[in-house]
Structure formats: C-alpha cells, structure tokens
Fold each of these.
Amino acid sequence: MSSDITPFEQIRRTNAAGNEFWSSRDFARVLGYADYRNFEMVIEKARTACFNSGHRLEDHFVDITEMVGIGSGANRPLKTVMMSRYACYLVIQNADPSKEIVAQGQTYFAIQTRRQELSDREIEDQRRLTIRSELRTHNSRLADTAKDAGVIAPQDYAIFQNHGYMGLYGGMGAQDIHASKGLKKGQQILDHMGSTELAANLFRATQAEDKLRREKITGKAKANAAHHQVGAKVRQTIKELGGTMPEHLPTVDSIKPLESKAKKVIKAKKP
C-alpha cells in the first residue's frame, strides 16, 4: 500500500451499498489508545457534539457487536461503533491532543469533511431547486382543482391551504410556520424549506389534488377537510418511518439566490 496514504484512509471501510465508514476499534488502534475503554469516553463526547449540532446520532454512530476469534476456533463478542466521516471528525476533535497522530487526523478529517460538506450542499441545493419548481406546478394545479370544488375566492383558498398545513404540521397554520421559522414579513415559508420539508409539502399537494378529483369533492368545507386529512396522513407516514416532523426541520437560507444563479447558468448555455 502506498506510503502517502494516511492511516485513516487505510482503515476506511465500505459497506455493500458503497457507503464509507470507520470502525471505532480500528480508529482507537491508529490513535494509540491501548485501553479501548478510554477511547469510549472520546466517542461519547463526540456523540454529544453530534447531537448538539442537530444531527441524527443514528446517521453517524451505529453500535454493533463483532465476533472476534480468540484462538482454537472460539469467538468472543466485541462492542464496536461504525462511524461516518463526520463522526470521525468529531471524535478526532475530542481525542488526546498531545498525540501527534491526533493532530494529523484533525487536519485530514477537517479537509475531507469540508469537501464532503461542499458536495452534500451542492446536492441539497439541486434537490431544493427541483422540488420547489415541482411544488409551484402542483400548487397551481391544486388551486385549479380546489376552484372546481368550490374554493374560488382568494381568502377561501388561503383557508383551504391552511387546512393542509395544519394537518401536516400538527395544527400549525401558515402564519404559525412563518413565525416558527423566524421569517420576516414578505418572506415565503416555502422559500426557506430544505428538500425534505419541501418533499413533504409536495406529497401533500399532489395527494390533495388527486383526492379532490378522484372523490369529486365539492364545497369549501369538504375540500378543507380533505386537505387537512391528506396533510395529517402525510404526517402520520413521516412518524411511522421515524422521520423528523416538518416543524422541527431546520430553516434554511432563501432559495431565491439559487434560482437566480440557475437561471444565469441556463441563459449562458443558450446559443
């Protein structure tokens, strides 16, 4: 193996799905922790930092039990933690700074994590742009369908939309969501949603439109009830899947600059 590959890269593993991870046992060995129990304290500090930064612990620290051979064909169980790159970054930040290898690790994971963050951010930006565009289209279709059902006046449509939000957000209407996100007057709540929250609202909009058409619902009250029912069902699905409730997802920067940038790129490509 090439000598210019860092020890941290050498112990990097890949699962069947192609996702990279590091074993806490390998990590402790590379960092020179002779007693694994001392390294477990470092991992706990990293878990706390991960939780406090708003990340899901299960996405970055996975506890498993490995069977390790001890001779004569016998095995014994060893508790191990499978760690993501971000988890390793937090671990290395909480490791013994007097160790030279720790300083090397801090540099390695700081650089690699930053590269990953940039890549993830680009993917998230593209997802936001795509889903936000689809949501505009389907909100327009939903408005037409609601109009056919009898929701005609702008004020009535606002009430209709609110019922969908209240179903999805556990009773919170558009104004409540706006306030919870800390947005200023004139800022649109959909412009400050990440891709996961946008996707939940897209599903709500498409299913509400389909329900109104399929069941030939007429009358404002029935349309409002149907929209609320759909929103509540989407919420229940998120809960059953163990997802984060939409009102607890982070508020993100406005999508407007991303849309402007995307338009400029498209314009520049035109002959």
Amino acid sequence: MKHIRWLMGMPITVEIVDASAHAGAFDEVYGFLNYVDCTFSPFKETSEVSRVNRGELALEDACDDMRVVLELAEQTRQDTGGYFNVWHNDVFNPSGIVKGWAIDEAASLLYRRGFRNFYVDAGGDVQVYGANAHGQPWRVGICNPFNLSQIIKTVTLDDRGIATSGSYMRGAHIYNPHGDDVLEDIVSITVIGADVVEADRFATAAFAMGRKGIYLIDALPGLEAYMIDRSGQATMTTHFQDYVAAPV
C-alpha cells in the first residue's frame, strides 16, 4: 500500500509492502506528521516555534518533543564546529533538523507496529526499512538540481536514511553561521546515514560549509555524500559509490 499526502509544505509518501499493511497505519503516521507541523512550523502563528519567537513561550516550558529536538540541535552544533545552528539573528528556527527527526519518528512508529518493509519520504528525505515489493533493496533517486525531471544517480538502501540539502528547491534558506556570505559554490549535497536523522542534520551543516562540507562527511564514520557545485561538477565521498545502483 502506498499513500501520498501534502503536509509540512511538501508531498509526503509512505509505502508499506508488508501483507499486514492497513489504512489505519497510514492515518497514524500522517496524524503524527500533522502534529509535528502544528508544533514546529515557523510559518504557523499558533506553533510553539512561533510562540517562542514572539516571547509568549519559554523554551523550558515547551513540549517534550521540542526539548528532544533542541538537544539534537545542540549536539549537531557541537559535532559540526558550529556550522549548524537553530538560532539566526535571535530568531529560533529548528526546521533544519525537524524534518529528519520527524521522518525517523514516523518510521519508528511503523516499525513498532510490526512493519518491516517500508519507507517514509518527505520532500526527498527518506528513511527505508527492509526490502521493496520485489524483495530487493529500495532504490532512491538523486535529482539533477538543474533539471528536476532528471535522476542523475540512483542508490540502493536498506535500513538507512538519505537526505539532501540545497538551494535549488527553496532558494537560499541555509546560511553560514560563521559569516554573512551567500552560499553559492554548491547547489546540493546528498548524505546517506545510518538513519535519516544523521543524514539530515549533517547534510544541512555540510551545505552551510560550502565546498568544505564534503570533507566533513568523508571524515565521519557511517556517512557518505554526493555534492554538486554550481558548475554541475559532482564530488563524492570515498565509499559513496558502494551505494550506487547498477544501471537497469
């Protein structure tokens, strides 16, 4: 069974290939993601993030999930030498880490319900488990940032996450916390990790680092990346090729 719904400002696809898949499982996943949107969206006036930014809610009084996300954000800031930061000009925006966390939580929800072969895809950031309907690893395409109808690489994954950060979909929305320069050297960086949380948090930081980001990923165990610069030149980490699918 496969469902696609629009939430969090993007299409979210959930496919479960286990024979036990049922509509209620999809409703539970999308219900959780709707809660995430209502809680963390900086664009919804009633969200906790918006209330924090208006001074109506202290972070210590926010929900438990907000504290989990804050701890993860702080860990990422430390892990990346400050290249990831949810604060910019005194504005709180945890969007750079919430999506990966939300996808992973949604996938974990399905796993706890006994499903073993499925994926959750939110705007191209994906967590996969098990195998596809043909009993093979899941195939995930990486878009050409200059032509979104074209897939330039396909990777095969099982029980892993993949996330892409870039400027080609939403414009310049990622900044370098160590300077005011506009990030123009690279257009996208795709990271594969043990789960989508790891992939997403390090993809955001690596993009903020510009050309240096690919070296950050290459130095971290369990992560691989594929970077495309503004001239269309691609650079990959040492073992990224291990995930690349053979042409069909």
